[in-house]
Amino acid sequence: xxxxxxxxxxxxxxxxxxxLTAARKLIEEEGFEATTMAAVAERAGVSHRALxxxxxxxxxxxxxxxxxxGAAEDLRxxxxxVWSRPDAVSALEEWAHHMARAHPRIMAVSxxxxxxxxxxxxxxxxxxxxxxxxxxxxxxxxxWLADEGRLAGAWTVETAADxxxxxxxxxLLERLIVEKGWSPERYGDHLAGLFRATFVADPR
Length: 204
What we know:
Blueprint (H helix, E strand, L loop, with lengths): L1 H29 L6 H8 L3 H7 L3 H15 L2 H9 L4 H29 L4 H27 L9 H10 L3 H10 L4 H16 L5
Helix pairs in contact: 1-2, 1-4, 1-6, 4-7, 5-6, 6-7, 6-9, 6-10, 7-8
C-alpha cells in the first residue's frame, strides 16, 4: 500500500503547487477580481473537483497562497538575517535591507491585494494577515531598541512601531523602484539610513 500512496501523494503535491502557482499568476497578470476558483482551475489545468479537494473555498486558497509566497521567495531566510543580528541598531538596518530584498519579489501580488482589499473580503483577509505580521515585527524591533537604550527620545515603542510600519508602504516601494528606477540595493541603503536617523538615539 505504501508504494501506491507515494505516487498519489506526489501527484497531490504537484496539483496543489500548480493551483497555488496559477492563483499567483492570475493575481499578478489579471488582478484579484479575476482570480476566481474557476479561473484558477482552468489556469492550472485541473478539474473543479480536484481544486475543491485541495481548497474548500477561495478564501482558503488565498490564505494558503500567502504562506506559499513566503516559501517560494524564501522570505524566512531573509527575515532570519534580521533577527540574527547582534544588536538592535544593526537589526533595524537589516530590516530595511530585508524590505529591499524581499518586497520587490512579491510586489505585484501585494499591490493587487491593496487595490482590491476595500471591496473583496478575501483580499481584505490576506492584507490583514500581512499588516499584522509587519506590525509585530516592527514592535519587536522597537522594543529591542528600547531595551538597549537606543530608541530616540521622541518615540515610544508603540509610536515608533507604528511609524516604521507606515514606512513599509507598498506605495513608497513602487514609487522609488518602479517609477524612479532605484535598484533594490539603493533602496535598502537609503532606507537603512532613514531608519537609523529617525529611530536611533545618538546614531553613529
